[in-house]
Amino acid sequence: MRIALICGGGILPKNVAQALLKKQSEFAVIRLAGEADTDLELPQSIPLTTVGWGQIGRFFRFLEDQKCSHVLAVGGVTRRPDFSSLKLDFGGIKVLPEAIATVIGGDDKVLSNVAAVFEKRGYQVIGVLEAAPEMSCPQGLVTRNAPADNAAADIELATRAAHAAGSLDMGQGAVAADNRVIAMEGPEGTREMLRRVATIRQQKRARWKSGQGVLVKRTKPGQDLRFDVPVIGPDTVRQIKDAGLAGIVVEAGRVLLLERDELLRVAEQESVFIQGIVFHPSAGQS
Amino acid sequence: MRIALICGGGILPKNVAQALLKKQSEFAVIRLAGEADTDLELPQSIPLTTVGWGQIGRFFRFLEDQKCSHVLAVGGVTRRPDFSSLKLDFGGIKVLPEAIATVIGGDDKVLSNVAAVFEKRGYQVIGVLEAAPEMSCPQGLVTRNAPADNAAADIELATRAAHAAGSLDMGQGAVAADNRVIAMEGPEGTREMLRRVATIRQQKRARWKSGQGVLVKRTKPGQDLRFDVPVIGPDTVRQIKDAGLAGIVVEAGRVLLLERDELLRVAEQESVFIQGIVFHPSAGQS
Q1: Which of B156, B167, B188 has the most A C-beta neighbours within 10 Å, making it the best mutation to test the interface with A?
Q2: Which CATH superfamily, name and number, covers A136-277?
Q3: What number of C-beta contacts closer than 8 Å exist between A and B?
Q4: What's the CATH number for B2-131?
Q5: Is B208 helix (H, G, I), strand (E, B) or coil?
Q6: pLDDT band at A91 (very low <50, low <70, confident <90, very high)
Q7: Segment B206-232, tens digit of pLDDT
C-alpha cells in the first residue's frame, strides 16, 4: 500500500505526515495550493507536489506516477473555485462536469462525491484512523489530572447531549456543567461553541464553579470518518480553561489528539483532564 | 380574584398590564425598582407602587392593603441584591432567612422558591397564560405569509430538535434550514441563538437560500409556566429575516406574542410567517 496524502489547511496534515514518516508508511504528498500553508517538515525522500484548483489532470498524473494505491485526504478546505475564472489543464477538462458536481454539493455531499471520484479510478480512500490509529485518543485518562468524583453526572449529561446532537446530524460535541446542558455543537464548530460557553458563564446566564463541567466530543452516527474525524488540540484545552470547565471526554479511538505533546503539556499546565471513553452505540457510557 | 401584578424588566409587563386593563381584570401593580423601567401607561385608577430590594415588609403590606388574592410576576429580574449592603425594613427582617434562601438558589430554584414564599402566605401564584391567555399565539397561521410547501421538513426537524433541547432541560428553541439542524437554544437564549444562526450563514458554515428554514419555539417538559413562559416579539421577527430564515413556528397557546400589533406589522413587512402548532407531548406535530 502506497498512500497519496492530500493536504488541506491546519496543523492536522503535518501531524499525519509525521506519523506516517515515523511508522515508515510509504507515501507521497499533494499539497492543495492556498490551503496547505504549514511546512510539513518532511525529508527530501518523500515526493511532494502542490496543485491548484483546476489542475486535476496534474493531480491524477502525480498519483499514477507515484504508483499510489490509497488516498488519504486531511485538513480543511475553505476555498471554493470560481468556475468562471478557473483555468483547467487538459486532464481537468475531461473531468470537469464531475468536478463541478462534486464541489457544488453541500459539505456532506462533497465528501462522499470526492470519495466516489477516487474509487471510480481504482483508488482506495482511507481515513486517518486507518492510516495512523495511534493519533487517536486511547481509552482511559491521558492526563495526570483526573475528573472529580462529582464530574460523573456532567459527563453522563454531556454524553447524552452530544449523542442527541449527533442523532440530529447537527454536530459532534456538547458541554454540561453543574448538572445542566450548556451548549450543543452545530455548524459553528467546537471552537465557537466553547467561546459561547465562556460568554454564558461571564454573563452569568448559567453559573458553575471554576473547574466544573465537561466537553464531550464523539462521532456522529453514520459519520464518514475517512474525511471528517473529530479532533481536539492545545487550543481546545485552553478554551476549556477559559470557559471554567474541568476537562474533556472523547470517544476513545475515534477522536484525534492534535499536537499531542503540546496538548498534554498544556493540559497539565492548566489542570484540565482528558479522558477517552468507549461509548455505547446508543447514548451512555460503557 | 384581585391580582398583584409584579413587574420586572422588558416590555412584557406593559403588555400584560394593558391586557388586564382591556379585559377589566381587577389588579394592582408593584414595580421592582431598577428592573421595571418601562412606563406601563396605566390610568390613575390602578394602584401602583415601586419597591426596592429589601423592602419586603412594604411589599407584603401593599398586597394586604390592596386585598390581592393572586400574584402574577412578569418580566426579567437581572439584578441580585448585595446582602452586605442590603437595608431591610422591619417586615424584611422577619422574612430575611427565607428571602436569602430564595435568592441564592439557581435560577430554576429561585422560581419555585418564590412561588412557595407567596403560597405559604395564602396567595395564589398564577402565570400570564392563566391571566391573559389571549396574549398567546393561537393555533394556525397568524400572518398572511405562509410557509412554502418544502418548509414541512424543516419544521419537523426543528420541532424534534427543540423537543430534544427541552428534554435535556437546555432550552426552548431550535432552528433548522434546508433539512439540517443549525442551532439548539441553551442558556444564551433565543436572541443569541438567532445571532449565531445569522453568523453561521454569513460565514457559509451551513448554506441555505434566503427565506428557507424555521425557528421552532416551545415549552420545556415540566416547565413552570407561571414564571417562565416563552415569548416572541418584533425583534425576533427582524432576526429571523437577518438570519435568512422563512418563519417561526410556536407551540399554540403556550408562547406569548409580544407587542402583537407591531409583531404582525413587521412580519408582513419582512415576509416572515408565524404559525401556532399544537405539538404532541412527545416530539412531533399533531
Answers
A1: B188
A2: LpxI C-terminal catalytic domain (3.40.140.80)
A3: 72
A4: 3.40.50.20
A5: coil
A6: low
A7: 999 999 999 999 998 888 888 789 999
- pTM of the predicted model as reported, rounded to 2 decimal places: 0.86
Handedness of CA A222, A225, A228, A234 (dihedral sign): positive
Helices (H), B132-250: 152-167, 189-202, 234-242
Residue A191 contacts B, CB cutoff 8 Å: no
**C-beta atoms of B188 and A169 within 8 A:** no
How far off is chain A from B203, nearest CA to CA, in Å?
A: 9
- 3-class SS of residue A232: strand
**Cβ distance A275 to A214 under 8 Å?**
no
CA-nearest of A264, A250, A175, A182 to A217 is A250
Q: Could you report the predicted ipTM of this complex, rounded to two decimals? A: 0.83
Interface test with chain A among B180, B195, B207, by most A beta carbons within 10 Å: B180
- Are the Cβ atoms of B165 and A184 closer than 8 angstroms? yes
pLDDT tens for each residue of A101-151: 444 444 445 556 677 888 888 999 999 999 999 999 999 999 999 999 989
The rounded distance, in Å, linking the Cα atoms of A233 and B38 is: 48
Domain ranges of chain A: 2-131, 136-277
